[in-house]
């Protein structure tokens, strides 16, 4: 047995009172036990775990034993006992002859029977009632007598039954018997609290501890139990402080328990007895650590075991998934699990890592309880506290290498006096940063994060040696001034300098190795000279790790730009004529790849950047000399050559001749707006054909009949207009071929240029507009479709991961490739400064800058690509930021009064396109009867019923009454009446899969969440519609307002 004790084989047995008095306690346990079981299995401390529920002899089901679940990850024998499911299905049993004491002795006898000799069994006993005890002259109660008969049977419970007939005998058997047992009762005695002393005695006899809960709620049970288990295992987070727990711990003092021989003697040792035998203190983690007898050999730190044992990693992954899926809050029960979770998160080689990270984030977002969310947030924050590890790493550096070092000089202040009392991050001490603000570098290299860390780097104090160290820094203790030796950047110390550097800002902060390398890159980018060698060392150690598409955080413009800038600085400093040209912090191939990707993304971000294109002008009812004339042989008027048909017949005469039956009112009036005295200097109205492929200029005589956009005769006939191109402005002028005799077409000048008009104009355009007309080849060479969907707005990581292998990307993809000659057109007109336009765009790209735009509603500046059309309707050119769009169109919410003004564009006051409302309107675009709310807005105030989802009359609009009182979760009268009669339709079956669906609030547009269904349907009538038809249906069938209104385009 001694050998087995040395091996520290342990089992965990959870013993639960499942009688009627435990109703509320057991309900809480049903939520807590699954957490406790999963957490216990995660610790890898126990080879087996089992659950035993006991009731009383008035019940048919006296005992319920789960059997043992094997959880030793090294064992080859596994069973399929699902303890989590069994724990969740525990239920109380009621009997006709229940009494207050319960069959605790029987539960212990059965527990002892299923234990094994070669392992120590830790028993967690959950109870709220005492065992059946001999009351002396009164004897046992009726159920107690039945228990005595059962236990005194020599064959009962493997022959151990008689040993458990007396409570004192049971305790001594558990202490001195052939099986090693330690009992920790976790009690909640709301009534007759003195009777809990029986369990105090049992705990004392078995070297356990009796825990008395203040509340029997799930969080309390789980938190206390996990803390007890970890204290028993000897595991705690290094550097963690004491935790107050909602319970008290009791134990005996100054009393010889061995004097007790039978259970009738126990009354003297209870709190109400004549001996002050026990004391109770508020439970804390420190008290548990001091008082609880522990496992012989403390467990190794879970995080360290994870790093060293590949099999344990699989165990951790499986149990983490179970814990996250069932109740993610269980992970916050103790900071120890925070360290394990952080180690798991940093293990990028674990194939399940990203899946569990996504699942964790999803489940955390689903926590609705504010207290649970607060505790989870605090747990996550504490999981990043590595104070003990940092101090241990600093201590490994010998005294002679403690200098040079970096620290923060507490006597220096970098704050400036300002009149503004508001918080300004730039004017706050860097010690005011929170840990999560510093750790963001591992997730993003956003300029705000780099700016924050840049402030840290520039405010460090560098101490070269102890001899030159300021006296106040030398005299200060490590708790006042934390000094990080630069020697930690060396290989023999694990190159941990950059990982530990931020510990001097927020103690306990430790970066992962990738973020540490980025911090070194930032120091190089900023030119922090004292840290240059340390930064170059860490960057060179990461040289072969950056080009890894399995790390999505690297593949963005900010991160890659930081790496490229650090690399360029390194190359510039080492450009001494002796260093190899390709030497750098990045491999040459990686450098080219990263630059190509950054240029590509910057080009995409600049597709909406303003470019100034010079194109020919557009005459629009412009009065100029009519220009060359030709005599029409029919009407005998000298007409502009631009309106002449074949055989010296003008266009008007051609029309009348070809349409003899045309009414007089529709015939061309050949005598209007023309005179026999007209010369080429007579003024006339010039127009340009609106068709993009034409854009030819011509004369219009009867401008009063031009009620549409101008379109030349040839385009109306589907023909190509015969036009001459001006050699100066490149405008095109209609000039039929038969009238071109004697004209030097190469030197042709249009009337506008001849009259010295400004015939070339600067037009604001964008690369996106130019691409719509000229394609993308001038922007991007994309051989073999290397980039599957160029400029799709997806992240750079998505682009890179879908272009693997990346070795040939630079050969196949080129940004703004040189093309000679290159002729771009804009609205059908040749861009006359193509080279300047491309160079301007190239400048934005290579400078890694984007143009800012101004929100028309809040006047804030943001990247132009992030601005959205205010309503999506033609003619409304206002651009608005997302927050303003959501703030305006999201003013209306279910259960509140409808603001009809917010149903329209704030600028042009038209109804917005349905896509705009769908994205920002919080469902108001699909509210039934909304059209009546708009129609009656002058007489009635409408509200959005939270039950039926319809717009209903709320109150009559009375002049000078002001705004109506605020409504919240408002219900219309019809819904209130239906609810009173119990006729409210709470659910409807999905027309796709038949699953009953409940609408909590909002509009009637339902998208089925069942995988494989995803049908869009109307909750109002239950009809299924295609996604693009659902709003039209609501508009037509139920009085919606927006219907199928989509974004409009300019049209004739």
Compute the number of helices. Answer: 35
Q: How many domains is the backbone divided into?
A: 5
CA-CA gap between termini: 97 Å
The proportion of strand residues reads: 5-15%
Largest sheet: 9 strands, mixed
Q: Could you tell me the radius of gyration in angstroms?
A: 42 Å
Uncertain regions: pLDDT < 50 for 5+ in a row? 1-6, 272-276, 1043-1052
Q: Given this structure, which CATH class of the largest domain is correct?
A: Alpha Beta
Report the CATH superfamily of the largest domain: von Willebrand factor, type A domain
| SS elements, strand count | 36
The percent of residues in helical segments reads: 25-40%
Structural class computed from helices and strand pairing: alpha+beta
Overall residue-averaged pLDDT value? 84
CATH-derived architecture of the largest domain: 3-Layer(aba) Sandwich
CATH topology of the largest domain: Rossmann fold
Global morphology: elongated
Oligomer classification: single chain
């Amino acid at each position: 047995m001694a050998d087995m004790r040395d091996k520290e084989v342990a089992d965990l047995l959870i013993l639960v009172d499942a009688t009627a008095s435990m109703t509320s306690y057991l309900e809480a346990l049903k939520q807590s036990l699954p957490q406790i079981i999963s957490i216990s299995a995660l610790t890898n401390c126990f080879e087996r775990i089992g659950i035993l529920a006991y009731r009383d002899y008035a019940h048919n089901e006296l005992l319920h034993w789960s059997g043992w679940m094997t959880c030793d990850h090294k064992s080859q024998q596994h069973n399929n006992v699902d303890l989590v499911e069994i724990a969740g299905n525990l239920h109380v049993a009621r009997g006709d002859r229940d009494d207050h004491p319960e069959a605790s002795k029987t539960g212990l006898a059965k527990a002892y029977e299923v234990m094994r000799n070669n392992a120590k069994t830790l028993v967690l006993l959950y109870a709220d009632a005492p065992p059946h005890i001999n009351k002396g002259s009164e004897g046992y109660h009726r159920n107690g007598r039945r228990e005595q008969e059962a236990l005194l049977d020599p064959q009962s419970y493997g022959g151990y039954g008689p040993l458990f007939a007396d409570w004192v005998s049971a305790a001594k058997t558990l202490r001195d018997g052939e099986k090693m047992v330690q009992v920790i009762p976790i009690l909640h005695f709301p009534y007759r609290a003195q009777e809990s002393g029986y369990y105090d005695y049992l705990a004392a006899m078995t070297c356990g501890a009796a825990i008395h809960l203040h509340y029997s709620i799930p969080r309390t049970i789980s938190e206390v139990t996990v803390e007890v288990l970890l204290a028993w295992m000897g595991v705690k987070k290094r550097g963690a402080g004491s935790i107050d727990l909602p319970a008290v711990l009791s134990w005996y003092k100054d009393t010889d328990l061995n004097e007790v021989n039978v259970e009738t003697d126990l009354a003297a040792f209870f709190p109400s007895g004549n001996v002050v035998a026990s004391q109770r203190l508020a439970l804390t983690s420190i008290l548990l650590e001091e008082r609880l007898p522990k496992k012989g050999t403390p467990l190794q730190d879970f995080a360290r075991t994870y790093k060293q044992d590949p099999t344990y990693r699989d165990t951790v992954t499986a149990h983490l998934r179970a814990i996250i899926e069932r109740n993610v809050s269980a992970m916050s029960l103790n900071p120890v699990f925070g360290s394990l979770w952080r180690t798991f998160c940093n293990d990028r080689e674990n194939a399940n890592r990203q899946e569990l990270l996504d699942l964790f984030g999803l489940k955390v977002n689903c926590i609705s309880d504010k207290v649970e969310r607060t505790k989870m947030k605090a747990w996550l924050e504490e999981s990043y506290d590595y104070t003990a590890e940092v101090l241990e790493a600093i201590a490994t550096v010998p005294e002679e290498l403690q200098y040079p070092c970096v620290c923060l000089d507490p006597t220096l202040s970098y704050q400036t006096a300002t009149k503004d009392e508001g918080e300004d991050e730039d004017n706050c001490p860097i010690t005011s940063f929170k840990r999560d603000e510093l750790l963001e570098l591992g997730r993003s290299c956003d300029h705000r994060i780099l700016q924050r860390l840049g402030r840290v780097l520039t405010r460090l104090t560098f101490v070269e040696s102890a001899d030159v160290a300021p006296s106040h820094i030398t005299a200060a203790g490590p708790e006042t001034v934390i000094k990080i030796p630069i020697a930690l950047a060396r290989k023999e110390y694990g190159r941990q300098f950059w990982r530990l550097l931020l510990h001097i800002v927020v103690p306990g902060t430790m970066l992962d190795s990738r973020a540490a390398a980025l911090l070194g890159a930032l120091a190089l980018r900023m030119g922090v000279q004292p840290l240059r060698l340390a930064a170059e060392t860490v960057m060179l150690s990461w040289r072969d790790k950056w080009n890894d598409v399995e790390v999505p955080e690297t593949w963005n413009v900010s991160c890659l730009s930081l790496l490229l800038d650090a690399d360029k600085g390194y190359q510039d400093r080492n450009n001494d004529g002796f260093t190899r040209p390709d030497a750098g912090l990045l491999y040459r191939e990686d450098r080219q790849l990263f630059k190509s990707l950054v240029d590509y993304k910057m080009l995409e971000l600049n597709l909406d950047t303003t470019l100034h294109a010079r194109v020919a002008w557009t005459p629009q009812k412009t009065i100029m000399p009519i220009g060359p004339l030709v005599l029409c042989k029919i009407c005998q008027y000298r007409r502009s050559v631009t309106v002449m048909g074949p055989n010296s017949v003008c266009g008007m005469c051609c029309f009348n001749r070809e349409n003899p039956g045309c009414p007089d009112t529709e015939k061309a009036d050949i005598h209007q707006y023309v005179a026999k005295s007209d010369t080429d200097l007579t003024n006339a109205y010039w127009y340009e054909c609106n068709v993009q492929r034409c854009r030819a200029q011509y004369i219009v005589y009867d401008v009063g009949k031009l009620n549409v956009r101008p379109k030349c005769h040839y385009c109306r006939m589907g023909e190509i207009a015969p036009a001459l191109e001006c050699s100066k402005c490149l405008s095109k002028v209609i000039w039929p071929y038969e009238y071109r005799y004697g004209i030097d077409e190469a030197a042709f000048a249009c009337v506008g240029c001849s009259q010295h008009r400004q015939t070339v104009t600067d037009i604001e355009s964008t690369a996106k507009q130019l691409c719509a007309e000229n394609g993308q080849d001038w922007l991007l060479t994309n051989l073999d479709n290397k980039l599957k969907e160029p400029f799709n707005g997806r992240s750079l990581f998505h682009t890179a991961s879908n272009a693997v292998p990346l070795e040939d990307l630079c050969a196949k993809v080129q940004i703004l490739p040189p093309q000679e000659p290159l002729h771009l057109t804009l609205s059908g007109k040749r861009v006359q400064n193509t080279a300047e336009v491309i160079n301007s765009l190239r400048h934005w790209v290579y400078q890694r800058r984007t143009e800012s735009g101004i929100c028309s509603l809040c006047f804030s500046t943001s990247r132009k690509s992030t601005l959205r059309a205010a309503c999506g309707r033609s003619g409304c050119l206002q651009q608005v930021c997302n927050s303003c769009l959501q703030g305006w169109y999201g003013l209306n919410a279910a259960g509140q009064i409808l603001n009809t003004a917010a149903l329209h564009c704030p600028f042009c006051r038209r109804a917005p396109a349905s896509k705009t409302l769908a994205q920002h309107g919080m469902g108001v675009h699909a509210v039934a009867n909304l059209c009546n709310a708009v129609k009656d807005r002058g007489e009635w105030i409408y509200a959005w019923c939270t039950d039926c989802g319809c717009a209903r009359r709320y109150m009559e609009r009375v002049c000078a009454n002001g705004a109506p009182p605020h409504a919240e979760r408002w219900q219309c009268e019809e819904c209130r009446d239906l609810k009173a009669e119990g006729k409210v339709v709470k659910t409807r079956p999905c027309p796709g899969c038949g699953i009953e669906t409940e609408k909590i609030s909002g509009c009637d547009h339902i998208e089925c969440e069942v995988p494989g269904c995803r049908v869009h349907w109307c909750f109002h009538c239950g009809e299924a519609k295609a996604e693009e038809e659902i709003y039209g249906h609501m508009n037509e069938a139920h009085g919606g307002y927006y219907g199928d209104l989509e974004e409009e385009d300019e049209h004739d």
